[in-house]
Write a structure and sequence with these properties.
This protein is α+β, with helices and mostly antiparallel strands. It is built from one helix and six strands, in the order ββββββα.
């Protein structure tokens, strides 16, 4: 079941004339060669169509820009702690 309430069966298109809440329906072919579309044990009215209905133009969706990850400022506590550790590692060690 498509969003435009069309069903494809045996390479033919059918459009339901009723709104159907479920996404799946059952297509039955009876021995008298009649076809029935059933939704929740209820026959659904339909008609055969030659081509899919034209979609109504939707408003174009704006693609948002990719948000970059924020970085802490240079004077942020986290950066100051890293600089202090790096400074200690860079100091020459004197052995007496």
């Amino acid at each position: 079941m498509s969003k435009d309430t069309t069903i494809t069966h045996n390479k033919k298109l059918y459009q339901t004339e009723e709104d159907i809440a479920s996404k799946k329906v059952v297509v039955e072919e009876w021995t008298d060669s009649s076809m029935h579309i059933v939704d929740n044990n209820r026959d659904v009215k339909y008609k055969q169509i030659t081509e899919r209905p034209v979609r109504v133009a939707e408003q174009s969706r704006q693609i948002s820009k990719i948000k970059r990850k924020s970085r802490p400022d240079m004077d942020h506590l986290w950066r100051r702690q890293i600089r202090a550790v790096m400074k200690r590692k860079a100091e020459p060690v004197s052995i007496c």
